[in-house]
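A further point concerns the way the authors explain their paired sequence and structure data. For illustration, here is how one protein appears when written out as sequence plus structure tokens:
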Amino acid sequence: MTLLIEKIERDYLLKMVCAATPQDDNDIRTKLLLKQKLGSCLTCTKDQLPDNIVLLGRIFSIKTSFGRKFNLKLVLPGEADIKENKISIFSALGSCVYGQKTGDLIKWRVDDMVEEVEIINVQKSNRIAALTGPVKN
């Protein structure tokens, strides 16, 4: 599957990934995955984005292999707050679900654990209005 995102989002995230200093093996895997996704994606305009793809600012629902369901919002690292169900695109799960669509099964790894989740819904929401200004980690 080829990732389809807005050019401004791709450019901003590529700058973030390239500027970030990985902290551990999980961080290296996460940033490498994002860099690969962003490097091979297609770009489009905002109105051409499908509604069922997990992108920055979108709320999505997942179901774990244990049957638990979660509603999460994919955000930039500085906005992440698990108490508010906001996960960073730089997290292990965030980087794996980014660009995936409703119905996709995703395996994500943290340390020695591998978990499989299914994306069961993606809500069209107010996406991040502008990805401008300095890149922050």
